[in-house]
Structures are given as C-alpha cells and as structure tokens.
Amino acid sequence: MSTFLSSPETLSIPEALARAHAHWEAGQADQAEQYCQRVLAVWPGQTDALHLLGLMAHAYGNLDVAIAHIRQACMAPRVPAVYWSNLAEMYRQKARLSEAEEAARRAVAIDPALAVGWNNLGIVLQEAGKLQESLAGLERVITLRPDWAEAHNNLANTARRLGRMDFAEQHYRQALTLNPNYAEAHCNLAFLLSTQGRYDEAASRAQCAIDINPRMIEAYVNLADVEVCRGRHDAALRTLDMLVVFAPRHPTALLARAKVLRQLDRLDDALAIATEAVSVAPQTADAHYVLALVCQALGRADEALVHFEQAAQLPGTVTEQALIGRAGLLLEDGREPEALIAFDQALKAFPESVPARASRAVIRRFEAGDPDIAALEAAVAQSGYRPLAEQIAAHFALGKAYLDIDDPEQAFRHFEEGNRQKRATFSYDTSLTEQWMERLALALSPARYERLHGAGEPSELPIFIIGMPCSGTALVDRVLRSHPRAARAGELSALRLAIEGAGVFPDWVCALDDAGVQTALRQCGQAYLTRVSPLAQGRAHLIDKAPGNFLYAGLIPLILPGARIVHVRRDPVNTCLACYTELVDGPYPFAYDQTELGLFYRHYERLMAHWRAILPREHLIETDYEAVIGNLEGEARRLIDFLDLPWNDACLSWREQSRGMTRIVNPNQIEQPPRKSPQSRWHAYAPYLGPLLEALEIAAP
Question: Could you tell me which residues the TPR repeats occupy (predicted)?
C-alpha cells in the first residue's frame, strides 16, 4: 500500500513503523506511540501498529489495553503467527486460559516451526492441567531450539507436575547450564528439591533466585515453603514479610501467607487473607483451594466444600488436589460413603493419582488381587518419578493393604521403607528430647506448683484431650464433642504457641521469680483464649484435641485455672504400633523409627507420672482406650460428669448422627468393640517389632 504520512514530515507507513520500533527499543515510549497513532490515523486497523501498541501497553502493566490492541491486530487476514502467540501469553497472564489456548493453537497452525508459539501453548496447557499435551508441545520446543534455557525450564515444570522428578531435575539443571543466572530455573529447582526432602539445597537455590532477582515472588514463596517443611513457621513468615514491600496484594503472596497462618492455627488471620486472595483473583483455582483449606480448619465444612468444588472446576493445576481435598473433607465429616464416591471421582479424573489412591486406602478393605495394590506397587517402583510425599504415602497405603490380606511380612517391608523415607527428612535426637522432658518436670516442682496455682486467666472454656498420638484421643473426642454444649476444634497448636510466646519453655519458668511467672502465666492464658475463642462459636466449652499437649499438662491449670484435662491411655505396644503403621499428621518426629518411638513412649510415661502427682484431681481425669471401647456408656458418663456437664444421649449416638468436623490422625482409630483382647492386637506382629519391644522393655509373647 502506497499510503504516505504527511505533517510534519512525509513518511511511508513502513518508515513510520520502523521509527516507532526504533523509539520503543531506545526506551522512548511516547515517541513510539506517536508514530503508531499516525499510522492508525491513516490506516485504521493496521496490524503492526496495533501489535506494537499492545506490546507497549503490556510492558507498562496495562494488560486489558494490550489484549484489546493485539486481539484487534489478529482479526486481520494473514497476520504473523507470533502475534497470535503474544495474544495467547497475554490471555494466560489474565487467567483466560481457554482463550489463551485457542490463540496459541492458531499460532502454531500458521507456523508449525514457531518455537515461541509451541512454548506459549505448552505453558497454557500446563496451567490448564492438560499435562500430557503440554509435555508433548514443550518437547517439540526443545527439538526446535535445544539451546533455549527457558524451554528447558518450562518442560521441567510440566514434567514435575506429572511426577517425573528425575526428568524434571535434568531439564532444570540443563536450563541453568545454558544460563547460570536464570532466576526462575533456580526457583523452580528449589521447589522440586523441597518436594524430595532435600531442604538445604532447596533453600540455597531459592536464595540464589532471590539474589539474582529480588522481586521474584515465587522464590520467596518457595523459600517460605522450605522453612515450613523444616518446622520453622516464624522464619517462613519473615520471608513472606519481604513481599509486603513490592507485592502486598499479589495472589501468590497472599495465598502463601494464608497457608502458613493456617498451619500456625491463626485461622482468623488466614481466613481474612485467603478471602482477600479470592477477591483479588476470583477465577484462580489456587485461591479457592487455599480458602477451602482454611474453612476446613475452622470447621466450616459447607463453605469448604463449595470452595473445593470451585477450585476443581476452574482451570489450573490444583484440580487433583481439590478433588482429593473434597473427598478428605467428607471423610473427616464422617460421611464415608460420600467420601468413597469422591475419591473414585478423583481417580476417574486422574487415574494415576497416588495421593487419591493412598488416601482412599484408609477407608476401604483390600482383598488379594486388588488392582490398587498393583497400582501402588508401581508407584513406589518409580521412586525417581514421584514426589517424596507421594512415595511415603504409597508405602503406608501398601502396608495397610497387605495387613488387610494377612501378609504382614510385605506390610512391614512397606511400613519400614515409608518410615525410613520420612525419618530421613529431618533431624531428631532422642537424648535431647529426654533431657528436655526431664527439665519440664524439674521446672514445676510440687512446692512451686502449689505457690503458682490459680495465677492464670480464669476460663472454663477449654477441654484438653491429651495423650500419645494414636492412643484413642479421637474416640474420646467424638464422645465429648457430640455434647451440644461443646464445640469441636480438632488438633490445635494454640497452646504450644501461647507458651512459646513467653520465651523458651521451660527456661522462662525457671528464670523468673514467682511474681514474674504469674504475670507470664496470665499472659499465656490470654494469648491462648484470643486464638481459640472464635472457634467456640458461642458454646460453653471447646474441645482441643492435640495429643502432644501432654507436654504442657502441668502448665494448663496454671495458665487456665478453669480448664479440664482428659488423658487418654492405651496399651503401650498397640499405641506405638498404630503410630508406626499410620502416617501420622503432626509434630511427631519420634514416630518413624521403632527404637525412637519406644524410647519416646517411656519418656512420655515418666512425664505423665510427674504431672499426675502434682495436678489437682479436679483438673485431670484419665481413661483407657480399651475401657472406652469395652464400655462406651460407662466411660462416657464418667467423663461428662467430670466436666460438670448434664448428660446428653448424643454422646452415645454420634455414630448415627450427621457428624461434625474434627481433624483426626486416622478415622480407623474409631473402632468397634474388638472380638478379642485389644492388648493382644500386636502379638501377631511381634516378629516385626523387635526394636520397639526392646525399647519398651517388653518381652515378645
């Protein structure tokens, strides 16, 4: 077309466009825009001018304007393929994934050799959860441009989501070989290493990404995730605090903070932040997924189900997690038939899902030849292709399956490997634990306890259920929380956090005089009540079922003089056997080695003997798991009477009721009365429990 531009100078359209590009590349945006507008004044809809205006708008963060310009450019016939590719990327950034996929497919249809087009299509398909298609597209990019570091990084991202961990690591490292200062590849490799339990290297890679690009949000999030895996939640929050400076309302930053706060039981704060993330990015699956987790922790089951379902329906990479989360929520809510259906739905959508198959194993009985056994065996055989958490879960599920079909040798082979893999992810010293528990007892001598008694914050709200994990606390929780005057809170870390807020425990108790300790005790009580009171929802009592609170049992009446404590005991070997054969969720580092587990049980017994000697009878009641399952009504009435509550038949009829929320270690802890002595349950497995029996100083039968 021979159109010319006049005033103030005469230029052809190609010359004007060339000047626009030159000004843009020189950082002179105003001049570049002027030349583009002069072209469009003469030739409305001129594709190259519209495309450049779109690129400029995108660079300045005006994504809607950028999309409008480039979409208009793409309406012309014979438009270059790269324009469609750029439009696809902008749609992706706007989370309009279906439109992004359509644009990207148009690009590669126009030019099948366009590497950037295949790359953008691969990323869109990855985010839409179409991982096999994404992998094929990104492998094509590598074929077209084997020296493109970004393509190796993107291919690794898809491979990681497919569980092909070795393949993913190989391509992350290839990306870094091609570009050692590639911050995104360092960041993504950090995430992969964290899923494999390689936390030190993961932290180093995440920090490297931050050093290269101090504004990379995902690098801070990945570093925070590593700190969470190490159990250093405060360090995780400090890392995320850095994002407040330059990304205070970015959805990724908000969701990372909400997840950490949820793990710290700061549930109101977590809810506010997760809700803000959904308001900022209402069509983002991750936001709904995290909000569902927070609602679940708050006992708001109906709301959690809604957000799990929204997360599963929206395009994104958390569909599998959302479907499994929904099934797990139904299971926690006591709706086992619905949970089984939900797990089946997850497996229909994701037939290779190890988390879905392993989670479902908890509530089904296996038979010889069960196809799930073969599928789980195949999963553990692919150790380099699966995240460590999936490998561990598969081993525990297989252990349960082989126990179901009466093959204890195979069962304990898998239990031992699952426990070994889990134990290798953290440091734990049983002698230091023993010394610390001895110091707990020494810090509160009977004489000092008597002087401090009654100093805390008066409140009859909390009822603490304590004991070893897998000791039957879940069963007692079901009984007590069925009372209409008791609210269920699940396993909270609120007591530990309140005590640690006063300083290192028990050091602060020993360092202060009585007056100072009394002040600290009152502050601890106030801090605890501030955290948990919203969970009571107006009821007279709140059930705090965190077994590990036995460590602080001696402080509870000092912090909260009106609180009651229910200590649940169980046969020592059966308790430890349950810990070892169930993938316990919580701060239980002693549970993954038979010797360490047995020694910890003995430390627990000694500490509880001390607490028993100093705690007033009006604060502590003890019940045996075996007694509860053998005489449910008798023990239930004894417990309700201790709590000064009127009897209510709901405490016995909970099996038939629509059950409410609780976070329990394993629903199978709630058993029917046994047909033989529960103490003898472990006898059949004695040949596989040698280190445990030796540590417990119990002879094999």
Answer: 81-114, 115-148, 149-182, 183-216
